[in-house]
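Lab notebook, page 48
Experiment: co-folding of the full assembly
Goal: obtain a model of how the components sit together before planning crosslinking
Operator: M.T.
Materials (sequences as entered):
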Amino acid sequence: MQLLITILLDGLTYASYLFIVSVGLTIVFGVLKILNVAHGAFYAWGAYAAAYAITYAADMEYSDWIGFVCIFLAAALVGLVLGMIIERVILRHMYAQDEVLIALATFGIFLILEDVILLVFGVNPYFAYQPMALLGRVPMGGISRDVYSFTLMALACVVAFSCWWGLTKTKWGKLISVVIYDREISQAMGINVSMVYLIVFVIGAGLGALGGAYVAPTLSVAPGFGIDVIVLSFAVVVIGGMGSIPGALIGALMVGILRAVAVHKMPELELFVVFAVMATVLIIRPEGLFAPAKARTI
Amino acid sequence: MLQILRSDKTIRWTLVGFFVLAIAGNFMPAWVQNNLMFGLARGLAVLGLMVLWRTGLISFGHALYFGIGAYAVALVDKHLGVSDIFLRLAFAMGAAAMVGFALGFILRKYRSIFFAMLSLAFSMVLYGILVKVEALGSTDGFSVSATSILGWTPESKYTLFCAIIVACAAAACMVQYYLKTGLGALTTAIRDNELRVEYLGYSVSKAIHFKYIISAGLAGASGAMMAMALGQVDPDSMVNWTVSGELVFITVMAGPGSVIAPFIGGVVFEFLRTYAFELAPHAWQLIVGGTLLAIIFFLPMGLWSLLERIWVRKGSSS
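Observation: model returned without errors.
Model output:
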């Protein structure tokens, strides 16, 4: 029983983290039809920016609560600046190209951003534990757990709710759905499609950065931080269906729980299980579990 | 077949080029020789990816076969003590081609981004196993003992260098020959219009499957050569998704123009990386990534198209 609770909580924590990172990826794919490898770099940038700000605030002996402000500010800043630059300067000129070639271009962007991180923040790891230490630990299911991981779950719920609300209840959300449905017609109807693309890309980048920024206090932020995240979030997005937000939620839950089970029961299978599920889903339902049915061209 | 060999200019020039390189290699400093070995070894995998790319498919998972080839060499070395280059290559290519044959049944139904993603998933499955299983070396991998040729163990690396060149030349000629055959000529046709190819009475999925097996075998050979040249295999530099990314990068950089292009691309990539690392140890990825973007933007048909343009201009002016 105790093991079950542990697995469940570990799984949910990991799933929340995966969801926050992957939802940005899936939104960008849904609207721009870009498989964004550079998403891992946004994640790493968010983590570095947050860790830098938190350690700076701690050095200045500000209240530790400032750390939480730092996290959100860092994510927003990274999303705005990097997202805007990359969409406007590079991706803008590529939309006519083949999907896979664009993915390769984002791989180039990823490589560049990875190194710019090192040039800006240096090669030494950052330890920004203050926000996590501040919230302390709480006993649950027989062992003590970080309160911080529960706030991560809450954040994931907030993100999920805002995405749903933003897409279905606001004017911009409706515009986005229209653009997803048919880009040309919506342009003909006078919708500023290039603006929609820019906004969606910035939001996606910001969400990736938020994922990185929020987990920064729980890890040591070191070079190569974004490499593993990319394929994991690919797995989540593919399992749920590329472009689908509920899909990202289900995908994150599946991957999170399965990984937690594997870590506790058979640690050798930790990574294997994630990608085995990804491959199985692609074989059985290539569009993903929750993607709407589409006519396929051969 | 001999007719094609005699009449084909590309094959003639490939053989001459590799022969000159093999002789020149003897007079090169060790680091140049090493870089050439790595570049040419990678070129083998890129050659396979080029065949796929000509049909319009880009695989983000060929590190799977690269890794299978490399690990096959390491495992037969560790458990059976096989050090002969021919046996090692046979094991590596056989294992890679067999896995390619099996997975090909699934992958041949997929196109564009789904093909890329499913190949990625398969390669990451292997990565997930290799990283965690102690018996397969875990994250440290294995070392590979020196390579012998028919019982003779050469002292310098030059012999392996020549062996890699022979393998590359053979592969380039075979692929060139294959692209001239009926099945090979379907490559571009499939990219342009699958439906018409079907109407003409050919099976698109069979053609793609066959090309997939070729590319898997070549990637296996490439991984095996890399393992022998490095003397070491490990999951992060052999099977991780970044390796697949590099291979695709070289493919796009080299361009689909010719069977020689992959080898030029591989060598250019190796030197680019070495020099970038030398110039800016913390910014070499920046240089490599920038090059990738520049090529996609300004040279969509790759370095080969640049060579071709120079060639044509020379031809017209003289």
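Interpretation: DSSP finds 15 helices and two strands in chain B.
Next step: discuss with group before ordering constructs.
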